TrEMBL record:
SMART domains: PLDc. Residues 143-170 form the PLD phosphodiesterase domain. InterPro entries: PLD-like_dom (IPR025202), PLD_domain (IPR051406), PLipase_D/transphosphatidylase (IPR001736). GO terms for biological process: lipid catabolic process. One of its GO terms (molecular function) is hydrolase activity. The keyword Iron-sulfur does not apply. It comes from the Eukaryota. This is Mitochondrial cardiolipin hydrolase. Belongs to the phospholipase D family. MitoPLD/Zucchini subfamily. Keywords: Hydrolase, Lipid degradation, Lipid metabolism.
Length: 212
């Protein structure tokens, strides 16, 4: 019997106990790294509402300089995109967002845009600014269904989805909402939806009009 360890435990038993504990810890680390799926609640999600409460007066909504905290956050997401933007929005005519997409193209991001064909019928639509910057826009009626989505997937990781078109009216004159989420299962579903539509649609630009 070993006096140094007491309780009737031999040196060999203590050694095997320590080895077993260390081995268990190593196995747990491996399980965490390769098999453990983080809780879906750990993936960031937030909700934005419009009109933006950070704009105290209605006159602020129509200011060319006061965009509000919520819209500034959306622009920040667009400006910090690293690889790709997949944009599927019924109507696009809001210059701050269109300009952010053009800036992303200049950073050499892969950009794909799906919009309703009525957007393309307006010769003064900012959609033509995208076309002129070599951004591929696909737009055609899908059977008898209206293309009424309003979502964007950033870098295949972040989803912005809600009620708002990219129009001055949506951000400056309507009650709207946009959810921003990184939840992988949700983002994956929207990526599939975008790719399904993209594959069905034809590239359809009318000749780019000359704006006078």
């Amino acid at each position: 019997m070993s006096f140094s360890f007491g309780l009737g435990m031999s040196s060999k038993a203590v050694f095997y106990t320590i080895v077993s504990a260390v081995a268990s810890e190593i196995v747990w680390k491996i399980v965490q790294k390769y098999f453990y799926q983080p809780s879906i609640e750990s993936e960031k999600t937030m909700v934005l509402f419009f009109p933006d409460k950070s704009l105290k007066k209605r006159t602020d909504l129509y200011s060319k300089t006061a965009l509000g905290e919520n819209l500034e956050l959306i622009l920040k997401y667009l400006d910090e995109a690293k690889k790709s933007l997949d944009i599927c929005v019924f109507f696009l005519s809001y210059n701050p967002l269109v300009n952010a997409v053009i800036r992303a193209k200049k950073r050499r991001l892969k950009i794909r845009v799906i919009t309703d064909e009525d957007t393309m019928k307006n010769a003064y639509s900012p959609i033509y600014d995208l076309v002129q910057n070599n951004i591929e826009v696909r737009s055609k009626a899908m059977d008898h269904y209206l293309m009424h989505h309003k979502f964007i997937v950033i870098d295949k990781k972040i989803l912005l989805n809600g009620s708002a078109n990219w129009t001055p009216q949506a951000f400056e004159g309507n009650y709207e909402n946009i959810i921003i989420t990184e939840k992988k299962n949700i983002v994956k579903s929207f990526i599939k939806q975008f790719n399904d539509h993209w594959a069905k649609l034809e590239v359809k630009y009318d000749p780019i009009p000359i704006k006078i």
